[in-house]
Amino acid sequence: MMKENDYSITKRACYLGFVTQAIVANFTPLLFMAFHREYDIPIASLALIPAVFYIVQLITDFLCAKFKNLNYRRSIIISEITSALGLIGMAFLPALFPNPLIGILICVCIYAVGSGLIEVLCSPVIEACPFPNKEGMMSMLHSFYCWGAVGVILGSTLFFTLFGLANWRILACLWAIIPLYNILNFATCPIEPIVPDSEGMSMSKLLGSRTFWPFLILMIAAGASESSMAQWTSAFAEASLGVDKAIGDLAGPCGFAFCMGLGRLWYGKRGQHMNLSSYMTVAGIICFASYLVASLSSLPIIAFIGCMVSGLAVAIMWPGSISLTSARIPGGGTALFALLALGGDVGGTLGPSLVGLATSACSDSIQSGLLSASVFPLLLVVSLIFIRHRISRRMA
Fold this sequence. Notes:
Layout: H1 8-26, H2 32-39, H3 43-46, H4 48-66, H5 72-92, H6 100-128, H7 134-163, H8 168-175, H9 177-188, H10 203-207, H11 212-230, H12 233-241, H13 245-270, H14 276-296, H15 300-314, H16 317-328, H17 333-361, H18 366-372, H19 375-395
Helix pairs in contact: 1-5, 1-6, 1-7, 1-9, 4-6, 4-17, 5-6, 5-8, 5-9, 6-17, 7-13, 7-16, 11-15, 11-16, 11-17, 11-19, 12-13, 12-15, 13-15, 14-15, 14-18, 14-19, 17-18
């Protein structure tokens, strides 16, 4: 077997893969006002962009779970190519259609395929590498999504301040340089399958396993706990702190991603001596308390601090759920990681949707909407307790 040092390029490639995913997920929403002004697209129609992105990503997750013998190298190179093509196409394709929104959605579909492949494949690629601290390495890997989100928000805001929003096409092409460069990394780095293709479990076998379902619920709860706050912090900052959108984006999603990145970085460096399940349980309780503070506090600044603390708390949930599951179902293969990604994305869609519905039902009170989402960290804690109980019963 190769030594850990031989996998340094693999590690760098996967890190940049998650940065790429952060770029395609967070860059286009920053352009909504540019699309509205230049292409005269109604604001309500722009809501199709994130909806189509997550739907295509969910379909990609599902297809990866269905096809057992997935070529890791070829598929992950395709993820970088489609991510770059989607970003570059965004600069040119909308103007070629009578309805520019069609061109935008085509580009969204292209880079959403790349995002879905990155989400499914980077985790098992890192898991298969001979690193001694697998749980910490998984947390470190997922921290790069956070740093990518912070980077794309800060970098884009700085670019627009210096050169104007009208030059967004140039920036779209500049962001595409990262996935284009990363094609070389994935083409040359050592990549090992998490299990041999012939031994990996099929999607139907996993879904028929009683062992797998508690972990899938855990993953859904993790995705919902993270995304509910992440997607509503900008609106929350604007509504509760009374700041404009630019400041709201920096203080909200950027601040939340920074806190989440810190949490993942800390666990990646210091978490090897901790019990992951216990750590996640404590994180779930803190996250639940943070949601309560954010939704019930009458002081806006205290409520906003609750949002940021939840970023630290949710940090371990997504990568920790992957690590716990792969440890308990070591023969799951690609289908396991694809279904976990699917579960995380289902939670990432369900959580923010519940917040939106509850907000609308409570006279547009975002705090009331966030209160409804406190059920997800609670579900995560219950799932962890149930999993530990089942493991202890089997060992007795």
